[in-house]
Amino acid sequence: MALQNVKTDTPSSLTKLNPEQEKEALDFVNQILGTSHSDFAADLKSGVVLCEFVNKLKPGSVKKINKQRMPFMQMENIGYYLDACRAIGIESQYLFVTVDLFEAKNLAIVALNILAVKRHFGYGFERGAGSTGNVFDKY
After folding, report:
1. Spatial contact of 3 and 95, defined as CB atoms under 8 Å apart
2. What is the pTM of this model?
3. For residues 99 and 111, what is the distance between their CA atoms, to the nearest angstrom?
């Protein structure tokens, strides 16, 4: 299956969220946290779920999670999550900017980021013939 609406071969060029990627990403978050989130954009927007997610995979990755509903604190959480992604070695091409999630500007790259984290920790990834080892292999 091919990625939809890809202008170049980099994740940052994605503009439309592929429903299969969204489902796989949210299912993985739910699997790790033992939750049942169902609205990709709304459930991840505050950054709390992402911070808890990365802390579950690598404890202590995010030291402070803001639970208040003030926008700047929610954006801070997203920044903390992205800092944790950098620290664990997620390649920059799989990182997004805060507004991609907070303002739902580019949810496709957010989903690919979660899938990159999934692959990084060895969940659901089998390197086979023709595989390059990146999140684009499946799509």
Report:
1. no
2. 0.81
3. 14
